[in-house]
């Protein structure tokens, strides 16, 4: 049984609870925040979003962020735990020049949708 991970408002800090997880939010969260290659049991697990920390806030960086999210969540589609992954990015240069917002929606196999949004710090 998986235990539910609670996240703060910007999904940067996760805290394990003893409540049972009823959806795949844990899978989505861990797939996106764990650095790809850092988990000893599966070097293909995780995302490459950490590589964008030194990238400029451009359209190309936004496209890379979307690609990295899809790549990190592909295993959910391959295993049949999800049927669809939608990723969008927002470059809000009016509020903060150094933030790129990720908006991720994953449709589970049972039809429910899990939403995840997070800011990625860029230069």
Provide an overview of this structure.
The chain is α+β, with helices and mostly antiparallel strands. It has one domain (3-121): Nuclear Transport Factor 2, Chain: A, CATH 3.10.450.40. Helices cover 24% and strands 33% of the residues. It is built from two helices and five strands; from the N terminus they run ββααβββ. It has helices spanning 25-33, 59-78, and strands spanning 3-7, 14-20, 82-91, 99-108, 113-121. Strands 3-4-5 form a three-stranded antiparallel β-sheet, with helices on one face. The chain has a two-stranded antiparallel ribbon with strand order 1-2. α1 crosses α2 (59-78). The termini are far apart. The model has no long low-confidence stretch (mean pLDDT 84).
Q: Tell me what portion of residues adopts beta-strand conformation.
A: 25-35%
Continuous helix count: 2
Main beta-sheet strand count, sense and barrel state: 3 strands, antiparallel
CATH class: Alpha Beta
> Which runs of at least 5 residues are low in confidence (pLDDT < 50)?
none
Q: Strand order within the widest sheet? A: 3-4-5
Q: Number of DSSP strands? A: 5
What overall geometry do the principal axes of the alpha carbons give? globular
Multimerization state:
single chain
Q: Report the C-alpha radius of gyration, rounded.
A: 14 Å
Order of helices and strands: EEHHEEE
């Amino acid at each position: 049984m998986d235990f539910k991970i609670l996240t703060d408002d910007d999904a940067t800090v996760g805290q394990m609870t003893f409540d049972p997880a009823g959806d795949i939010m844990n899978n989505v969260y861990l797939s996106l925040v764990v650095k790809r290659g850092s988990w000893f049991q599966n070097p293909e697990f995780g995302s490459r979003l950490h590589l964008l920390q030194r990238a400029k806030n451009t359209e190309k960086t936004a496209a890379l962020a979307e690609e990295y999210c899809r790549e990190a969540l592909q295993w959910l589609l391959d295993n049949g735990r999800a049927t669809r992954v939608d990723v969008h990015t927002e470059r809000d240069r009016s509020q903060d020049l150094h933030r790129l917002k990720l908006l991720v929606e994953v449709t589970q196999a049972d039809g429910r949708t899990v939403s995840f949004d997070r800011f990625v710090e860029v230069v």
